[in-house]
Specification:
mainly alpha, 0% strand, elongated
């Protein structure tokens, strides 16, 4: 039986992170876990030369960062106003 290599483990872990993120009720946790999963998929995609996988997940990671930034800025503005 062939041993699972490091790249496959990264791919499996990325899949698990994205799946777990989709079960979150808290949007911040969802965005962070999805960001980690997408980032791992970018690494995985680059290592296996799957450029569509790497590119699409890099794009989704950027979307997660954009929304997290908006959330944290809104919280900071709410705290400053109080």
């Amino acid at each position: 039986m062939e041993a699972v290599n490091t790249i496959e483990i990264i791919g499996y872990f990325a899949s698990v992170m994205v799946a777990i993120s989709l079960m979150m009720k808290n949007i911040i946790w969802l965005r962070w876990l999805n960001f980690v999963g997408c980032t791992l998929f970018v690494v995985y995609g680059v290592f296996i030369s799957a450029w569509p996988v790497a590119g699409m997940n890099a794009f989704v990671a950027c979307i997660n960062i954009y929304h997290l930034t908006k959330i944290y800025r809104a919280k900071a503005n709410t705290s400053a106003a109080a």
